[in-house]
Amino acid sequence: MYNKTNFMNDLTIIYYSANTVSPYFFENTKKALLKAIGEIPLISVSHKPMDLGKNICVGDIGRSNINIYKQLLIGAKEADTEYIATAEDDTLYHESHFKHRPAQGLFGYNINRWSLFTWSQPPIFSNRGRMTLNTLIAPRKLLIEALEERFAKYPKDEMIPLKFWGEVGRYEKYLGVTVQLTEQFQSEMPIIMFNHPESLNYDQQGERKKLGDERLYSLPYWGKASEIVKLYQ
Amino acid sequence: MTKGIVYYTDNRCDKTVWTAVQKQLKPCGLPIVSVSLEPIDFGENIVFNGKRGRLTMFKQILAGLENSRSDIIFFAEHDVLYHPSHFEFAPSKKNAFYYNENRWRVDLKTGQALFYLCPSTSGLCAHKNLLLEYYQDRVARIEKEGYDHKENYEPGLKTGYEKWMSKYPNIDIRHGRNLTQSRWKQEQFKDKNTCLGWTMADEVPGWGVTKGRFDDILRGIK
């Protein structure tokens, strides 16, 4: 068991959502999230009003990769802790993920993150070891600086080179903004990201998306992919 | 580049098992060289005159490689059910040993299924020249120095190998006379990193429920 009092006071969860997932799926991921975060404060920034932590409803601004970062910035500014952790509506988090703190000045990404394609037969977890936004634990002020610099350089959405608009620490060189440094970590227990037809990524790649080379039929703590996939279906 | 299969057996496997394995292999359509200790009617058969054991197995494999006319070789064992998706793979590097880690073990009697990540010779695929070079050297070393228990059965395990996972798994049938030990509990592994992905199940993806009906699956393969 983790001693939550040691690591809950310096962290806020920033949950961003376009509210496109089904109520059934949402309830399942929410249940896992609330169990994982315990007493850690949560700010949700959503397109529709939500009963989840402190909610900021931004209205129907449209679902896009740019708006995800706008929502994240709004949440980060609302928080007052040293660190923030991101949370998404299609990811199952484990409490060990929120125990990590990155070294000073670094953006930490958890690579013990496994994908579960809801359409994949047989159901299987896979991992590419990539840094993705839903696993970020970041120094809050530095995150705000980094995102504000981006939006200052590209005040209009249409100016943004979309192929480089991604995780902090990955594409700054191409965006022409201050390069941010990252670290990768692995939580004691894995976290699971669903790839599903309602996700932004599905719009781009659909079911052509390839499984990662590392594949497992079950994961510690969570169990079998064939059972976990039912949380979506 | 052509693909082919080298199948090796010591003819000591349960008939229900080897019959099912051979029937399962035939529709894959690849040329098969079989190397056995007694004559069998399967592919292009070579009878190897030797006593069952590690050195004999390596020599059988070498004989199979030397007689295959294919460029890319998939190994096949008499107690492994190969899913057709296994043979869809093509190795991109000529100098690498590739292991299909999508392998479930199924107990012949109970049908209990178990998965964990572990490279096995039964799932090996590589370019023939690389395999020939390895097995010629391995056989020569064993004949000269004896069998080194510190060296794995599987080529490349210490020097580097590649792995892949086919869309559907192969089934490694555990029948009590396997050359390698059957382990059904994680406690039996000193190094827990050698049994990552541990999954016990009553069914195997792509094959259906095995628990209590594995014999039906074997007999149902036409």
**Largest Cβ-defined interface:** A-B, 11 and 15 residues
Number of strands of chain B: 14
The sequence of SSEs of chain B as H and E is EHEEHEEEEEEHEEEEEH
Q: Work out the radius of gyration of chain B.
A: 17 Å
Structural class of chain A: alpha/beta
Q: What general form of chain A does the structure show?
A: globular
Strand content of chain B: 15-25%
Average pLDDT taken over every residue of chain A: 94
Radius of gyration of chain A from CA coordinates: 17 Å
The description of the largest β-sheet of chain B is:
7 strands, mixed
How is the topology of this model organized?
The complex is a heterodimer of chains A (233) and B (222).
Chain A: E1 11-17, H1 23-37, E2 42-46, E3 54-57, H2 65-78, E4 83-88, E5 91-92, E6 106-110, E7 113-117, E8 125-127, E9 136-139, H3 140-153, H4 172-175, E10 181-185, E11 191-195, H5 200-205, E12 214-216, E13 218-219, E14 223-224, H6 225-228
Parallel strand pairs in A: 1-2, 1-4, 2-3, 6-10, 7-11
Antiparallel strand pairs in A: 4-9, 5-11, 6-9, 7-8, 8-12, 13-14
Chain B: E1 3-9, H1 15-25, E2 32-36, E3 44-47, H2 54-67, E4 72-77, E5 80-81, E6 98-100, E7 103-107, E8 113-115, E9 124-127, H3 128-145, E10 162-164, E11 170-174, E12 199-201, E13 203-204, E14 208-209, H4 214-220
Parallel strand pairs in B: 1-2, 1-4, 2-3, 6-10, 7-11
Antiparallel strand pairs in B: 4-9, 5-11, 6-9, 7-8, 8-12, 13-14
Helix pairs in contact in B: 1-4, 2-3
Report on the structure:
The complex is a heterodimer of chains A (233) and B (222). With 233 residues, chain A is of the alpha/beta class. Chain A is built from 6 helices and 14 strands. Chain A has helices at 23-37, 65-78, 140-153, 172-175, 200-205, 225-228, and strands spanning 11-17, 42-46, 54-57, 83-88, 91-92, 106-110, 113-117, 125-127, 136-139, 181-185, 191-195, 214-216, 218-219, 223-224. A 7-stranded mixed sheet of chain A has the order 3-2-1-4-9-6-10. A 5-stranded mixed sheet of chain A has the order 5-11-7-8-12. In chain A, strands 13-14 form a two-stranded antiparallel sheet. Chain A starts with 10 loop residues before the first strand and ends in a 5-residue tail after the last helix. The relative contact order of chain A is 0.18. The model of chain A is unreliable at 1-5 (pLDDT under 50). Chain B contains 4 helices and 14 strands. In chain B, helix 1 (15-25) links the parallel strand 1 and strand 2 (32-36). Chain B is 23% helix and 24% strand. By secondary structure, chain B is α/β, with parallel strands linked by helices. Chain B has helices at 15-25, 54-67, 128-145, 214-220; strands at residues 3-9, 32-36, 44-47, 72-77, 80-81, 98-100, 103-107, 113-115, 124-127, 162-164, 170-174, 199-201, 203-204, 208-209. In chain B, helix 1 packs across helix 4 (214-220) and helix 2 (54-67) packs antiparallel against helix 3. A 7-stranded mixed sheet of chain B has the order 3-2-1-4-9-6-10. The chains are: A alpha/beta (233), B alpha/beta (222). The interface between A and B is medium-sized, with 11 and 15 residues.
